[in-house]
Design brief:
Blueprint: H1 6-24, E1 31-32, E2 37-42, H2 50-61, E3 67-71, E4 82-83, H3 90-93, H4 95-103, E5 108-111, H5 115-124, E6 129-133, E7 141-142, E8 145-151, E9 179-183, H6 191-201, E10 208-216, E11 220-221, H7 224-228, E12 236-241, H8 247-256, E13 259-264, H9 273-284, E14 291-296, H10 297-303, E15 317-320, E16 322-326, H11 329-344
Helix pairs in contact: 4-10
Length: 347
């Protein structure tokens, strides 16, 4: 079926290539800042792990610099520049920005479709480092350091442009990256296999390739019922998620619990009252006396300040936090810190 879509992908390739050339020839304007701007992006349509990698950078930098994140705010009902605040909901910001704000209250979190204008406003409000979440394809803003993520199981070099494949940009765009991160790799990966992947990616002399893997933290309670109970000795788990790639989430839970039932929703799904009722119905039909409901951090963010969250009262609701670990952590950290140090004097 996808072979039949190749002509459409070819047209898409031509349009994107012309667009890139217009930027390369400076016929379209690209704004670069003299201050530290780090972009975390990918060529795929989703599922490479941009959010936990952005959080990794927040944790690395927040104790020594005034860090700000800038996203488009996918799924929000607002427009223009918006800063996160205590009353913000998914409709105001989108799920990833709200997650950053909840987990790291000391940083600035903003959304704006116009990344250049958004960055200007963040500098005015005292930001020292701006992290661009999912802006690799936005040529109107030129980050000082570009991190390109590609998933271990779905390398961009093995894929095609949408709709024949899952790429949203041409493969040659990868040449603009400073660092390529092979995400969701196994924790133990042989040197030979790493080299095989690096050879396939064929980086330029200036590009560095790093490997990262996911690590799951203990479950975090999301309601009073979960806070008063323990998730240990659980018979069954009802998991629900609206993310691009639910498999790692499902696999992580299956390692912890014997009976796991997953209810998948569309990526960035905005939960309705009927959705919550359907989730609770599945939960009640689960086997076993000791059972819990688990979701992802992104989905938990979408439920923040939701009028439907109270419907889970009586059912223990948790989220499963996710962390990123790099195989060469010290080397990766030093690359990021060196870039920020070299450009921080402009602040």
């Amino acid at each position: 079926m996808r072979i039949l879509l190749l002509p459409i992908s070819l047209l898409y390739h031509i349009v994107l290539s012309i667009r890139h050339k217009l930027y390369d020839w400076h016929l379209l304007r690209s704004t670069q800042f003299e201050k530290p701007v780090i972009c975390v992006g990918n060529l795929n349509l989703g599922g490479t792990g941009k959010t936990p990698h952005t959080e990794y950078l927040i944790k690395l930098l927040k104790d020594n610099y005034s860090v700000a994140t800038l996203s488009r705010g996918y799924g929000r009902k607002t427009r223009g520049f918006k800063m996160a605040e205590t009353t913000s909901s998914y409709e105001d910001l989108g799920d990833e920005p709200l997650q950053y704000y909840k987990k790291y209250p000391g940083i600035q979190v903003a959304v704006d479709e116009d990344r250049v204008e958004g960055a200007h406003l963040l500098w005015e409000q005292g930001a020292e480092v701006v992290l661009l979440d999912d802006a690799f394809q936005h040529r109107s803003i030129k980050a000082g350091l570009n991190l390109l993520l590609t998933e271990y199981q779905h390398l961009y070099c093995d894929d095609f442009l949408f709709p024949a494949g899952n790429l949203r940009d041409v493969r040659s765009a990868a040449k603009r990256a400073d660092i390529i991160v092979v995400s969701k790799a196994p924790e133990a990966l042989a040197t030979e296999e790493k080299q095989t992947i690096i050879n396939k990616l064929n980086p330029t002399e200036k590009q560095q390739v790093f490997f990262s893997h996911l690590e799951y933290a203990p479950l975090q309670p999301l309601n009073e019922t979960a806070k008063t109970e323990t998730a240990e000795n659980t018979d069954s788990v009802l998991a629900f998620c609206g993310i691009a790639d639910p498999e790692p989430f499902k696999t992580a839970l299956e390692r912890l619990y014997k009976n796991v039932v997953v209810l998948p929703f569309a990526d960035h799904h905005a939960y309705t009252e009927n959705d919550i009722k359907a989730i609770l119905k599945c939960y009640k039909n689960l086997a076993g006396e000791k059972k819990i409901i688990v979701t992802t951090e992104k989905d938990a963010a979408r439920l923040t300040n939701s009028p439907y969250l109270c419907q889970f009262d009586g059912a223990p609701l948790y989220d499963l936090p996710i962390n990123v670990r790099f195989h060469e952590e010290e080397k990766f950290n030093e690359e990021i810190l060196r870039y920020v140090r070299q450009n921080h004097h402009h602040c």
